[in-house]
Amino acid sequence: MSYLAPSEFVTKMVDAGESKIYMSTRDTVIRAFMAGAILALAAVFAVSIAVATGSHLVGSILFPVGFCMLYLMGFDLLTGVFMLTPLAWLDKRPGVTWPQILRNWGWVFVGNFMGALTVALMMSFIFTYGFNTDGGDIATKVASIGEARTIGYAKYGIAGWFTIFVRGMLCNWMVSLGVVGAMISTNVSGKVIAMWMPIFLFFFMGFEHSVVNMFLFPFSMIMGGDFLISDYLIWNEIPTALGNLVGGLAFTGLTLYTTHIKTKPKRTL
């Protein structure tokens, strides 16, 4: 059977959340590193396509290739574990406690950031021929993105901060549906189609993804973006990560778990 019923794939979600808690630190970091690196490559791929074609739509259509690759390889993004691991706690799986969940989130964050930063440095080196040129059109584009999505929010104060937070919520609503999409089919083509749709939506709409931003903002700073590390943290990464946490868990994890695992008795007529 190529499609799993919701009750089956939601059980797989809980099982996956439990498995993350028991994974060794080494494997957690390696898988997170590779996920951050591949997603970073997909981001620069999409930006390069958008610059070359003049179409954000074309870049958005092709961006999900990175997401599909990393999940087919079994690698982990922070946005995914934000949604999966608390479900194992709700299901009272043995050994799944909040300190263990936070430990997993911390190591996945470290791995994702290391992978994304590594690719940011490598791509910067490539585009500038070893930091000997200005990087051309790609540098101009990513520098402007970094500025718009930090100080561009900062000028609106607390309203700007909450705008990023809400964009982070909407992002991981879609991205976590992509994570689930990898579980609803038993063949590769079905998994890819199910993952592709929500990832395309989030990228085209410009929602904020904490791991994509771990690449985008260091890359933007190297390419000449006029903002500070503190701007990146306060006016993007922190509210984005918090929004990702709330959106993925509330809109995807809890809704699916509640209505397909912890269902209420059927009505009697």
Structure described in brief:
The protein has 269 residues and is mainly alpha-helical.
Structure description:
The protein has helices spanning 6-22, 25-53, 56-62, 64-72, 78-90, 98-127, 136-148, 151-154, 158-181, 188-205, 210-222, 229-260. The radius of gyration is 19 Å and the shape is globular. The chain has 12 helices and no strands. It has a single domain, classed as Up-down Bundle (Glycerol uptake facilitator protein). The mean pLDDT is 96. The protein has 269 residues and is an all-alpha fold. Helix 3 packs antiparallel against helix 10 and helix 7 crosses helix 11 (210-222). The protein starts with 5 loop residues before the first helix and ends in a 9-residue tail after the last helix.
Main beta sheet, described? none
Query: Mind telling me the CATH superfamily name?
Result: Glycerol uptake facilitator protein
The number of distinct helices, counting runs of at least 4 residues, comes to 12
> How large is the share of residues in beta strands?
under 5%
Features:
single chain; Glycerol uptake facilitator protein; 12 helices; 269 residues; mainly alpha; globular
Layout of SSEs?
Elements: H1 6-22, H2 25-53, H3 56-62, H4 64-72, H5 78-90, H6 98-127, H7 136-148, H8 151-154, H9 158-181, H10 188-205, H11 210-222, H12 229-260
